[in-house]
Amino acid sequence: MAQQEEFDPREHRTTTTEKGRFCVARCSCGWRGPARRARSLAREDAEGHLTAG
Length: 53
Prior knowledge:
This protein is α+β, with helices and mostly antiparallel strands. Helix content is 26%, strand content 23%. It contains 1 helix and 2 strands. Strand 1 (14-19) and strand 2 form a beta hairpin.
């Protein structure tokens, strides 16, 4: 049986990805923010997600 890494659901890891002219914030928990044209707004969305939980 393969050993699985334990994942703490309380631990969130956010990233931003770009697709064309838009930037989207995403989290390891499955949350996804709205598409933004400004990277700074996408980062603010991710920060808001982390503090809202």
